Amino acid sequence: MGLSFLVYPGAHHTRFHHALGSMHLMVQAIRVLRFKKIAITEKEEQGLLAAILLHDIGHGPFSHALEHHLVLKNNHETISLRFMEELNKEFNGALTTAIEIFKGKYPKKFLNQLVSSQLDMDRLDYLKRDSFYTGVTEGNISSERMITMLNVFEGELVVEEKGIYSVEKFLMARRFMYWQVYLHKTSLVAEQLLIKLIKRAKDLISDGDNLPCSKALSYFLFRNGNAEFNEETLSQFALLDDVDLLSALKAWQSHPDFILSKISSMLLNRNLLEIKIKNKPIEENKVAEKEQWVKANFCIQDNELDYFVFSGEISNMAYNQKRQNINILRKNEKLTDVAKASDHLNLKALSKTVTKYYVCYPKESV
Predict the structure, then answer these.
(1) How many angstroms separate the CA atoms of 134 and 278, rounded?
(2) Cβ proximity of 194 and 245 under 8 Å
(3) What span, in angstroms and rounded, lies between the C-alpha atoms of 253 and 4?
(4) Are the CB atoms for 62 and 2 separated by under 8 Å?
(5) Predicted confidence band of residue 248 (pLDDT cuts 50, 70, 90)
(6) Architecture of domain 4-183
(7) Which of 46-50, 68-72, 116-120 has the least mean pLDDT?
């Protein structure tokens, strides 16, 4: 959930909770499919359970917030796969089937779709879980109901026709959760500040500053972005969690560097930048006005202004019709994409990307 707890105080659940929940749903899905005479061997069952349990193990501190910033050129899926491959060596090949399913290389396509698709056990767990802990009831879905509607047709995962309304609710819930929780403006500005804090820390270190922090965090702050992601890197990454960042923030808030200490203090004291979200790109003169204020009031250089004044864009697409469609199995055994099968006019709109634009600047400049 990144820094969502700054908005929703209950959002302190972890990926460990999510991994266990996803595996629980996978157990239910396997039971339902076997009841419907879909062949899943004991070996495939163990592969599915291991794959879903480890699917997010490659996430670092504060989840998606620092992806591609602490470890460059490696997303969490790539790192998850590296962990699985190392564990496979340790357990003498016991994860081979799990890895094939995770990579989408296993002959039975529906097994991979249970782990990674637009209607997988991952999404069925996190939407319900995040809705519960944040209190955003629009995201509440019936995971169990969705699972009972699953089936396999011609080797692919499908939803039986009577489950179409459950799928509609699932997609609408996903859209609501992205706008109201995952892309909430306060979470957004906090995560952008965290990214900029890491950038500043790396710049100071490259200039010879020995910043106080944990050994694991120090490893990645000093690490060259083009360096090979080897076994040592994986071992150090496994030691990282939110606590490494939080303890560093506490130390850095008293650092003599104004930018590092200011941003650290902002995050620790929840005194964030102002953020405005618009439907149109931000006018350059508006950004320039805020930059002038920062230049006049903060002791920083022109090339450092974007630490406190910056703009960007966010987008939301609840359903991608071009990637692993959610297919409805009709009673006549014909498949129809859910967006076409639904009588809910909004579903076609959900397959279009909605883009919004934001600008962040110090509250004092308002």
Answers:
(1) 25
(2) yes
(3) 21
(4) yes
(5) very high
(6) Orthogonal Bundle (1.10)
(7) 68-72
pLDDT in the model for residue 344: 62
* Domain locations in the chain as residue ranges: 4-183, 188-314+361-365
Q: How far is residue 70 CA from its own chain's centroid?
A: 15
* C-alpha span between 206 and 113 (Å, rounded): 43
- Torsions phi, psi for 341 (to 5 deg): -75, -25
With cut-offs at 50, 70 and 90, classify the pLDDT of residue 64.
Answer: confident
Mean per-residue pLDDT, 207-233: 90
- CATH class for the domain made up of 188-314+361-365: mainly alpha
Distance of alpha carbon 103 from alpha carbon 115, whole angstroms: 10
**170 with 127: CB under 8 angstroms?**
yes
- At 245 the three-state DSSP class reads helix
Among candidate residues 334, 330, 288, 292, the one with its CA nearest the CA of residue 311:
288
Contact 52, 111 (CB under 8 A): no
Does residue 347 surpass a pLDDT of 80? no
